[in-house]
Amino acid sequence: MDASLPKNMADKAAERAAAHVRMFIYFAAGMAGLLFGLDQGVISGALPFISQEWNLSSAAQEWVVSSMMVGAATGAIVASVMAKKIGRKKSLMIGATLFIIGSLGSGFAVSADMLIGFRLILGLSVGIASYTAPLYLAEMSDKNARGRVISGYQLMVTVGILAAFLSDTAFSYSGNWRMMLMVIALPAVLLLLTVIRLPDSPRWLAAVGRIEEASGVLEALHGSVEIAREEMKDIKDALKIKQDGWGLFKANKNVRRAVFLGVLLQAMQQFTGFNVIMYYSPKILSLAGFSTTEDQMIGTVINGIVFVLSTFIAIFMVDKNGRKPTLKIGFGVMALSMAVVGVCMSMLEAGTADISISYLAAIMTMVSIAGFGMSAGPIVWVLCSEIQPLKSREFGVACSTMTNWITCAIVGATFLTLVDTLGSAHTFWLYAFLNGLFIVLTLAYVPETKNVTLENIEKNLMEGKKLRNIGC
Ligand code: BGC
């Protein structure tokens, strides 16, 4: 701080500088979210053109799509090692670079094998981003804004999915699938250019012994020496634990409980069935009686818009009303809407439905997207980056992020089989039941962490408080 300035002017200048740093952090996180969403959304529009050009078998098409998920699950593990060894900042830079290589390489691919190879690289980068960005944000944010900031990251994931669909539509007129795959490199370039200018996480800096730098970053973030000093003291306390990572997990029951909670949260997020709606929305719309391509395209765009808008609800609620009530409402909305979709499907299957039932099914699908967007979508990422103790944070977040990708693959791979064996009505009732069950699990295990510092959450956990009380 400039000593020649009067105190309150100096305070204001420090606050302005802090706001400036935070803005760059949010921008970088936004780009990380955007590339996650773009990559998830882009392939559905490109695949028909690729399959036609190279005459791909169903198995080859499945590989083109799922190679990204295999890469992402691997990326989460790679990221946990990198985040610990070289820090959050450099991990994000490597993630962005791989994304540029993966998307440009996919665009220039001359065979299916080459495309699958570059989709694997792209997946790796998405795994790294989905691991590192929420973790970095949690460690850089103020306790009162942490929920909003990480939900903002998820908002950009939803914007990315929508943007990918719109850009796919734009390029589909010329059938230019190569451009579809290459334009998504743009946010990765922006991410790289922004992250270069950002500081690393003060928690990581302190963990590797760079205490002075860590204090400097905290001061820059808070614009206040006092707050920074207090936070630094808590961080040092958290670092007193001797073991870390897997060693700490084996030795400490409380760490195992945190890992269990992270894994449970991500499994709950995926078994809401949301991605079924995301990946198969044209199929679901056709089950509901909307069979033209135009109807399905309109439906998919509306779904994307609903998803983006509903994430704003989470941003407004998460730090004010809290994580837990928002999650419960979201699971409730999904349980009800999926149950109604099931009723509509059973009437459609029995041939007793008219067009109003088809509309009801389509609207209820949107309601369940809104239920996810306002709750489990963002809030699970918020909670997972908050609940792990500092000394085993990389390990804990790796376990939960891996669970996200593995359960995502399970849900995606079983949907069509479920519809074939149980029928579409019972499949939706199954998901409705699971969402109901998740309300109970939320009541039993999920803590309220709004306005609590990461270090206080850790203290409560390590004192052996019940998981649902570690935020109190
Ligand atoms: C989920 C992904 C999902 C994405 C959509 C994330 O929170 O983990 O599985 O596809 O949201 O935006």
Account of the 3D structure:
The protein is mainly α. It has helices at residues 7-54, 58-85, 88-108, 112-140, 146-172, 177-183, 185-195, 202-207, 211-222, 225-238, 245-251, 253-271, 274-279, 281-287, 293-317, 323-350, 355-373, 376-386, 393-422, 424-445, 454-462. It has 21 helices and no strands. The longest helix has 48 residues, at 7-54. The two termini are 35 Å apart. The mean pLDDT is 90. Beta-D-glucopyranose binds next to helix 1, helix 5, helix 13, helix 18 and helix 19.
Helix/sheet category? mainly alpha
**Total DSSP E strands:** 0
Unreliable parts: none
Number of helices: 21
Order of helices and strands: HHHHHHHHHHHHHHHHHHHHH
Radius of gyration: 23 Å
What is the distance, rounded to the nearest whole angstrom, between the alpha carbons of the first and last residues?
A: 35 Å
Average of the residue pLDDT scores = 90
Q: What small molecules does this complex bind?
A: beta-D-glucopyranose
The fraction of residues assigned to DSSP E strands is under 5%
Helix fraction, binned, reads over 70%
CATH topology name of the largest domain, in short, is Growth Hormone, Chain: A
- The CATH H-level superfamily of the largest domain is MFS general substrate transporter like domains
Domain Major facilitator superfamily (MFS) profile: 25-450
Transmembrane segments: 21-43, 63-83, 92-110, 116-137, 149-167, 179-196, 258-277, 297-317, 329-348, 360-383, 395-416, 428-446
Protein name: Sugar porter family MFS transporter
Membrane topology: Multi-pass membrane protein
